[in-house]
Amino acid sequence: MSKKILYIHGFNSAGGGHKAQELQKMFPDWQVLSPTFDYKDPAGVQKKLDSLVRTQRVNAVMGTSLGGFFAIYCAKKHKLPAMIINPTTRPSETLANHLGKQKNYVTKEEYQFTAADLAKFADFERKVFDKLPCDDTLLHFALSTDDELLGDHHYLEEKFPKCQDFNYFEQQGHRFAGVKILKPIIERTISTKG
Asked: What's the CATH number where 71 sits?
């Protein structure tokens, strides 16, 4: 049976994007699940993730930026190995810079991201995310030292002290376009026992 990896896209992106396509090319024997999530509704994202993990029998998760936050959630809730690229760990703070008119990079859809949407993330963090214990050994990080939105990510080493897989890269920026260089880390991730 082929392994299944769930790829969780970032804010203002969509399922089936560049990273998901590259994943499928790198691992043609794996099934890459890459749905689109509505990030104005974190509770809805949680429900969709929980359902996908259960019904699809996902082996590992991977996420970028806000998708990295939700990949950590999946690692915590479902004890799944997670490959995390340039994550935000406090969307209620980092998304404050994105209030107002937004445009999805993939679908080109325009919408408003409001203070009420931001408050839903604070609620989700406090009531769900922060209450779940985390097995740091399930986490595998790929981090840009030149992330123009979130910084160099070194604070994560204090936040997840038992994680042994922090990988730093230069000249990748926040969006981390060079997904192919992550193949060995992704292979380590999917072989981690949850």
From this structure: 3.40.50.1820
